[in-house]
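Table S7 (text form). Paired inputs.
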Amino acid sequence: MLLSIQEKIKEIVTSFNQLPYLFVGTGLSMRYANAFSWGDLLYQIWCVIYGEDRFKFDKALQRIEYELNSTLINKTDEQKKYYVFPQLASELQYRFNTLYYTDEAFESRVFTKEESKDIIQNKYDPFKFYVTKCTLQIYIDVTKPEYAELDTLVQYQNKIAGIITTNYDTCLENLFKDFEVMIGQEKILLSNVNSIFEIYKIHGCVSDPNSIVFTSNDYQYFDDKLKYLSSKLLTIFVEHPVIFIGYGMGDPNIQELFSAISECLSPDALQKAKDNFIFITPAFGTNEELRTREFNYGTNKILMTELVLNDYSIFYKELGTIVSSMPVKLMRKMQDMVTRYVYSTTATNNIIFGSINSPDIDDGKAAIYVGSIDTISQIGFDSFDIMDILEDVLFNNKPFLMNQKLITNTFKNIRSISGSTYLPVYKYIKSLNMSIDDIPGNYLVIKSCADIKPNSTEKKYVDTQIKDDFIQNIVNAYPNHLPKQFANIKYYACYINADELGDYLRSHYKNGTYFERTRVSAFKKLTALYDYLKYNN
């Protein structure tokens, strides 16, 4: 049976052994923001210098292509722009800066007094300062039809180890607000490549105009340093899946990087890394598909997977199935604390540990607790909350919860904080050889299907005509209306199959459907129902 594109993507993401990196190009800003193309930006600068004249601009591009033709023999028209545009940028830079320093009328027409003062005081290149001035106008455009995809991408940002980009606009840091930004090759080369949740802006950033890579001289300098950068990024490319978004597969920025990497890896290592390189490219309304592409670099070759998609969110949603639920800000804080503690020769009091020399401690017994230092005495079952338990009930992935302290400590805390929450106790009392009579009387638990019934608001959604195969028929009847699904599942609680309800809840948990504020309560109650149906026997 042929797999759907969604199933193929699921297979790819399921095979990830490490959190993936994103490698982001201009196409992402053009997809989700009001970004202009490289050519449009150059023409905007041309107009400032020479006035609006598209014919002369196109003629200048054709002249440069003609002059470079001897070195671009085997290049496609799409590839040639990566050589022609930087050369034109160099010519415009010389003319722009000459005018800035010699023509006060030009200076006052292009920059405010404050901007010109900023250029002089910080020794910014005037041309690059103007490029960043144009780029600062780029912002996420909520009117674009693709904008809806971003909610899913941002929701699962803790499933992304880091971002590498040649963009110098600020779209990425505005989307991934808790990521640390590293600008330029020098800072990246000096950084700890094992750090997570960082945005590496290898072509510079608008926050530092001199850092941007835009002219032919900039690209030459970048290429001269590329091997150093390649070796720095080699660990990322070998150990992590790398997802390319916003690039053409023939983009010289990418091809030169892969060429440098291919020189560092043996053919066997390249073969092992083949599943790590994934390109997402727009389908532009045509059929979505998965392709395998091969690129040769001397005697070596690199295989890459290309996903041709109209809706990128079908890939972003699968990122949500990766197991990594700790918030970005907390993980960065934890990483920084541990790194400083390990490297420093000065004792700190923000990491506390007991004896670790006991022969009884092994990988299975060692654990880490992260939390406020003034509540360190509460470490243990007091620290778990209802979401930890619900996840374990659905996925059976927290065996350490199977302890009587869960009943006496954790459930007691949850009950005191939120007395109206139904507690899923049956899985645990069954395994601990306890009975429902051992549960304190003030715990709110399901004792019959009648305890789960639609509330006054939900009653209007009940369909009394649904027969048999209840979960599937409810979903089929109301495919896009979750409140109606919830109401009818409660109404037919006594007839619901436990395993079908479990599959339904696990699917929505993975997709994050229930984590909207108005749906969490229903999620908790239906999971308690699943616990009752599955384990109360």
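Next pair, protein 2 of 2.
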Amino acid sequence: MPEVDNGTTADGGGVSRRGLLVGASAVAVGALGVGTAGVAAAEPDAAFGPVTVRPGDSRYDNLLRGNNFRFVGQPDEIRVVGSTGQVVRAVSEAVRSGRRVAVRSGGHCFENFTADPAVRVLLDLSPMNAVGYDAGRRAFAVQPGATLGHVYRTLHNGWGVTIPGGSCPEVGAGGHFAGGGYGPLSRRHGSVVDHLHGVEVVVVDRDGTARAVVATRDPADPNHDLWWAHTGGGGGSFGVVTRYWLRSPDVTGTDPTRLLPAAPRRMLQHVLFWAWDQLTEQSFTALLRNFGTWHERNSAPGTPQAAVYGILQASHRSAGTVMLAVQVDADVPDADTLVADFVAAVTAGTGLAPAFEDRRTLPWLHRMTWPGSGEPGDVVVRRYKIKAGYLRRSFTEAQLAAVHRNLTNPTGSPNAGMLLIGYGGQVGAVAPGATAIAQRDVVMKAVYQSVWAEEADDAANLAWVRDLYRDVYSATGGVPVPGDVDDGSYVNYPDVDLANPAWNTSGVSAQRLYFKDNYPRLQRVKARWDPRDVFRHALSVRPPS
């Protein structure tokens, strides 16, 4: 399941060895002291760009689309930038000319935040992709154009460390980090932002001045609230992120090999498939119920079971199969037993024998960087709608019945379905207000999706996934209102339907569903750092009334 880049930003370059960032001078990396505001220091001599592409340029059409082909913008210009200074200048020009600006790093936004027809200037930060160790800050510097695969390879190959990010290697770090970031290692190591030490952000003051600001985890930092907003507040609301610094909390010393979690050496993976022809409603709902119950009982921080990462993927009946996948660091104690116990718990009482089963151990880095992993569709099939919700425990019986009813109806397609994704563990060790991620006692994420190829099929596919979602959450106005079972949704799986009263009749705003009680603080950060509301989209943090 893809983790998204929701249109925040990133800085770029290459890879370093130990104390510098290739593609960015040591001066540029370290010149802005903790909490210091101002335009970034000297531009690296080899910085890419800026390149301006306008309609009529042979490159224009190729730069318009993100990952979801449903959305194609028509900006006056696409500015491809390679440094913080170039971002400052591009934002200054856009503000001065009164043109709406949006930012793209990896382009994996599920909605049209960077392809909105109102956007006149699109900043493409893909060249800003440096990953390296910044000895001055005792942290790893990642520019937002770096893809997750590049981040994993560089951290692994250079220092043997990693971050608990998503499993789609082509997603850009820019939006992925700002929205929180999670993946197969999150139950052991928390969200990506639990390791976020600092951010460099291009902001716009009330008088229209654009400048670069550094904000850190240090509570004494006068810009600390801007750091906090980027620990799950999502991209596109406060400014343009041009660099992230990563270091685990409470680590000491200067040895970079000890400043982030150690990268696993091997991964043990077990995958099972059942044919829909084998499944009754009773056995199907038992699989989903058991998956949820296991996570209810085994998601405390620090437990051995926190090493287990499971996904239950239930495709529409027309696809023919339901899949259970589980993986664990193969070198944790009793890895084989952890996997076997998980599979036994999920399949208990179903009477099901898998139609196909595969169990193997493979290099961890191979799995995390394999091209195309987790992507919605392929180079042709790339239109999709994805909706989501957090779960604090297993679905109710009414919700299980709704899932089965929609996955077996005649209107779904083989590329439609839902996933339950394991969460919890170390994520729950952080207080809801310590970062912008408010959902800290949840144990699963639910994802509902449909993927298709042709524009002519938009209406049918959108209707199917919207009806499924509304049916599952029918008791709470068609959306996952926080309560005993549901707990809102994840901002990196953005869904503009949550802001549409035709699909959300709960009376709870989309922003409250994403941020819960953290939303008022996010609004205060917005008022301070983006008083002109320069950075906005359909689900962005709104200025206070």
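The mean pLDDT is 91.
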